[in-house]
Design goal:
alpha+beta, 60s Ribosomal Protein L30, Chain: A, 4-stranded mixed beta sheet, 5 helices
């Protein structure tokens, strides 16, 4: 068995701890270097101390951060340059689009005095009545209507059957004139209402035909035209 001298054994014992210490030191040095690199990258625009804390002036001098030679306005950070640092603009929620509201139906209604359109007890349009209906047709130009409803009304003088027939003839006469102005027949509804819907109520007394009664019941003798559509 070969003997090892004491001095050599002592040197060998010393080398093992030294090698281990070197490895540890190398590892720690590498870690420190990595940490330092991250710190330098994080605050390369400002001077930092050994704790990676940004160095500042004294409070009396304004407590300002120390800038490095690499500093540019684009590198400003909020804690040092609150006025220069880029702040994320708050996102403004976009208002929802307004719902599309279809245009409301535009109703147009005219009531004509039967005395203005016709002679008494007649269903033939007078010249003044023709002009009044022409003005009405011009007024509905551009109206996208569904239909036109013509209602003829009579007063209570005479029998109810006669008045019903007279009011229907007057409604038909108005319809015929509207058709002559280019309005389709299938879009016009003519309806005679007779004396069923008086405006005067009981305000006119008497049943005997007289000039006074005829004048009093004049509002009941009328033609109502209703147009409903969308502009």
């Amino acid at each position: 068995m070969k003997k090892i001298s004491a001095p050599k054994k002592f040197i060998g014992i010393l080398l093992i701890p030294a090698m281990f210490s070197g490895a540890v030191l190398a590892h720690e040095t590498g870690a420190d270097h990595s940490h330092t690199g991250e710190t330098a990258k994080k605050a390369e625009a400002y001077g930092v101390d050994d704790r990676a804390v940004i160095v500042r002036n004294s409070p009396d001098a304004g407590n300002l951060c120390w800038r490095t030679g690499y500093w540019t306005p684009a590198m400003a950070i909020p804690e040092c340059e609150p006025d220069l640092a880029k702040k994320e603009e708050p996102k403004v929620a976009e208002a929802p689009a307004a719902p599309v509201v279809p245009p409301a139906p535009a109703a147009q209604e005219r009531t004509f005095s039967a005395d203005a359109l016709f002679d008494f007890n007649s269903a033939n349009l007078k010249p003044a009545g023709v002009q009044a209906l022409n003005d009405f047709v011009n007024g509905i130009q551009g109206l996208n209507y569904d239909h036109i409803h013509v209602e003829g009304h009579a007063d209570r003088i005479g029998s109810s059957d006669y008045n019903m027939a007279l009011s229907q003839r007057r409604a038909d006469s108005v319809k015929a004139h509207l058709m002559s102005k280019g309005i389709e027949a299938n879009r016009i509804f003519a309806d005679g209402r007779g004396e069923s819907d008086p405006i005067t109520g009981n305000s006119c007394t008497g049943n005997v035909k007289s000039k006074a009664l005829i004048e009093c019941l004049a509002p009941d003798r009328r033609v109502r035209i209703n147009v409903k559509g969308i502009r």
